[in-house]
Amino acid sequence: MKTTPGIVPMVAVDRASPKPLYRQLYEGYREAIVERRLLGGQRLPSSRSLAAELGISRIPVLNAFEQLLAEGYFESHVGSGTFVARSLPEELWTGGDRARGLRPTARPGRRVVSHNREALRRSGAEPWLRGLGAFRLSQPAVERFPFAIWSRLVARHCRNPQRSLLHYGDPMGHRPFRETLAAYLGTARAVRCDAEQIMVVSGSQQALEVTGRVLLDPRNPVWVEEPGYGGARDVLAMVGADLVPVPVDDEGLDVAAGASRCQRPRAIYVTPSHQYPLGVTMTASRRLQLLDRARRCGSWVIEDDYDSEYRFESLPVASLQGLDRDSRVIYIGTFSKVLFPALRLGYVVIPKDLVASFIAVREAMDIFPPTLYQAVLTDFIGEGHFSRHLRRMRQLYRERRSNLVDALARELGSRVRVRGDEAGLHLVAILPKGSPDRQMAAEAARQGVWAMPLSACYLGKASSRGFVLGYGGASVSEIHEGVRRLRRILDPP
Length: 493
What we know:
By secondary structure, the chain is of the alpha/beta class. 39% of the residues lie in helices and 13% in strands. The protein has 3 domains: 1-107, Winged helix-like DNA-binding domain superfamily/Winged helix DNA-binding domain (Arc Repressor Mutant, subunit A); 145-386, Type I PLP-dependent aspartate aminotransferase-like (Major domain) (Aspartate Aminotransferase, domain 2); 388-490, Aspartate Aminotransferase, domain 1.
């Protein structure tokens, strides 16, 4: 393309701006090139004449030109001067696709994204997920965490770090941490495993993603609980699975109903110890039915054991994985509820014959997990701080749970029915059939109360309405005030 070297657009500088002069010149010329006010091959004024024209030192001009030359916007020819680079893409000067008669693939105003995003049901804009306090789900009492002890252990590892903790690590995770974790899971959760079967991950969401990538191909059917955990459904949808909602009753996942809807699922996702969100515990009969179904159909069972450490009326329920004699169960756990969510530490217990496949996927995703907090948590567990913290938190959450149940009975009476209050960090307040729980939850959020609507947990049409109320991160006073606000929403003046 023929260019006219003559007049060059002047770049203004503002001496009062905190931005350095060389940066103003650099950005000004770069913008002029991108906007085609300067064309390829057009000659630039000399640094000396430009500095004189602008009334500034030559040094910022030289610095700006040097940067533009380094990035390829300018080109310099000895004895001839400095020019706008001719090597910049021709489309920049000619209009590119228009000049070749090509049409853009996206409609005006629409930017094409992958089908993965289209598969996600949750937009992230739900108002009940925006704040902290009553009754935000998955929020532990972080203010009660022993940070003084934790900080001392972190400092210990940072002052004298092991070289092995600073290099690329094992894709399965820090070996001493996995050994400690295997001992804890065997004792506390009746999980049958050794350190070689444990993969450390960044929370249960990454555990689900790695598991989905290993086990599932596009269009594979997967049973999911109805109602159930939306985060798991999102991950499974992203890997292309066909989700088959299976109803949950007072005994847990209805295995017979699942078989009537899909005979041979590739995988079955369950939360048997404390079903999310209804809070029921899967009975022994259903557990054995589920494992037998998985064995006969060649299905995998994904057990999400997200908050089983907190049980108030009995000892924690043993894991489903501990009953499995056919190595069909992939067991997932997390420290987000028992310690604090920002720690981002979770784990997957993998059948031995799948370990190599999990490693291959993990290495392709992020190579290996960060090691510092694994080393810190190894000491935190080994020195007894973890078990003491759990005991204190069980007592605290029992008190907060009781206050919430009492407040619901006092303020709302027979208008709500409480379910799932025997364990975990949340319960469900069932409302009369047909109640507009989504609209109520949105209004509650405007009043600073973060009550998730139960209907949001259904993949299909909701058969129950109500609120899923988290109490772990709310003080007793916040709980009582939150219930009073819910009463005013249910009984507007």
